[in-house]
Amino acid sequence: MKKSIYLYTLVAALGGFLFGFDTAVINGAMPFFTEFFNLSSAMQGWGVSSALVGSVLGALFIGWPGDYFGRRNMLRVLALLFLISALGTGLAHNFSWFVIYRFIGGLAIGGSSVLSPMYISEISPKEYRGRLTITFQLAIVIGVLVAFFSDYLWLEVGPNNWRWMFATEALPAFVFFVLLFFVKKSPRWLVKNGEVEAAKAVLKEVNHGDIDHILNDIVESIDNEVLSKNIYLFKKPYLGLVLIGISIGFFNQFTGINIIMYYATDIFRSAGISTSSAIGQTVIIGFVNLIFTLIAMKLIDKVGRKRLLLIGSLGMSFFLAVFSWAFFNEHFGGSILLIVLIGFISFFASSQGAVIWVLLAEMFPNNIRARGSSIGSFSHWFFNALMAFLFPVIAGSFQGGRGIGFIFGFYALVTFYSFFFFRKYLNETKGQSLEDLEKVMLHKP
Question: Is residue 373 part of a domain?
Fold first, then answer.
């Protein structure tokens, strides 16, 4: 691969790092800002899900500006939103302003979940597209790990430790903004906007082989009528892809992964573990997440997206069922929970975690990619927000850990069903150009 592709990929993937950091930093901070603002269970859920409401809206509405202004330019805007959110949340003097700044950060998370992997997918050579796009997920995982570790380091600095936990994100957000001035625009976006020669120049930077052939395929795939009207998203031949994209987002959240990311500290504390030990165990979970994401990065272009999803669905459903059972057993302990979560995370990171953003970035044709990916990501964030808000309410409605047991038992059933859905409806996407893949997805001759 050419050196420039590494630079463009790594810079775009910083959106994933901030996504992961912002998502996970609230885990360790939660006991402290909950006490500081004297929050009820419902308000605690709102403190978490306020960012997710922003993520829902950010994912849903980023498609049009991503098409109109370009992926790179909108990523610059999102970088500024991350920066504002980090500083604002850390300085918030009341819960209302805390929620507002979390919401702003959510807009950036939702937007970056669409545009960062899409940008990487659109500049990547087909032979390496899977592992390059999965760099976004790797960056998310590293962001989660850094957030967990950062929370742990700020633990003993006093009553304002939660402020430092949130404000730490400002530095990488600023770096992301600056580095985005050193990357080129997406060649496929350039073609859609009539800048064919500029697109050809970018393709030469990142691809080997017949550049004229690649460019010609991109030009032929563009249909300006479809580009200009959203109604085509909900008609054949695009409707089926949109529904699959929505389902991918749904099944990803009903693994319970983000409940673990947000509430792992509280879950461990419910098992009788101290706050500091609980936060320490989340760091272990973060390391496991990283290791198995790296494994998936090696496998995705060889084994394929679909096979990874099928294997992961079976493994995750098993460990989710065991996790559920543990909360109905009076003798469960923190060590058992940690082992089971490590098993679950290993299967999630090497399947759903690795594959979702790759699929949403590559499965839609050039004509609807930004809008289609936006809808799939919207589904992910909508169910994420719903689960995050309801979890403390439902869990608190039962004595002991029974509420957590019921919730994760339900996740186990849904995840097991996802195996059959993916096996029936999902096409394999490895090793094909985005334009060739479009013909397969839409069943063109």
Answer: yes
Compute CA 66 distance to the chain's CA centroid, rounded to the nearest angstrom.
Answer: 18
Q: What is the CATH number of the domain that holds 65?
A: 1.20.1250.20
Instruction: Tell me which residue has tokens 């099944």.
Output: 251
Going from the C-alpha of 244 to that of each of 56, 172, 231, 362, the distances in angstroms are: 18, 34, 17, 13
Flag whether 308 is in a domain: yes
* Structural domain includes residue 209: no
Residue 222 — very low, low, confident or very high, per pLDDT cuts 50/70/90? low
Q: Report which of 436, 304, 426 is spatially closest to residue 366, judged by C-alpha positions.
A: 436
Residue 226 has a pLDDT of 46
- Nearest Cα neighbor of 133 from 278, 226, 12 is 12
Percent of the chain predicted with pLDDT > 70: 89
Number of domains the chain is built from: 1
Range of the domain at 372: 3-183+223-441
Give the Cα separation of 49 and 233 in Å (integer): 28
State percent of the chain over pLDDT 90.
37
Mean pLDDT value across residues 98-118: 94
1/341: higher pLDDT: 341
- Higher pLDDT among residues 393 and 176, named by residue: 176
Q: Please name the residues in contact with 18: beta carbons below 8 A apart, sequence gap of 6 or more.
A: 79, 82, 108, 109, 112, 143, 169, 172, 173, 176
**120-153 exposure pattern, b = at least 16 Cβ within 10 A, e = fewer:** bbbbbbbbebbbbbbbbbbbbbbbbbbbbbbbbe
Quote the distance between the C-alpha of residue 116 and its chain's center: 10
Query: Residue for token digits 């004297």?
Result: 38
Residue 130 has pLDDT above 80, yes or no: yes
Examine residue 205 and state whether it is found in any structural domain, yes or no.
no
Residues belonging to the chain: 445
Q: Which residues contact 55 (CB under 8 A, 6 or more apart)?
A: 106, 107, 109, 110, 113, 381, 384, 385
- The overall average pLDDT reported for the chain is 85
Cβ atoms within 10 Å, residue 29: 26
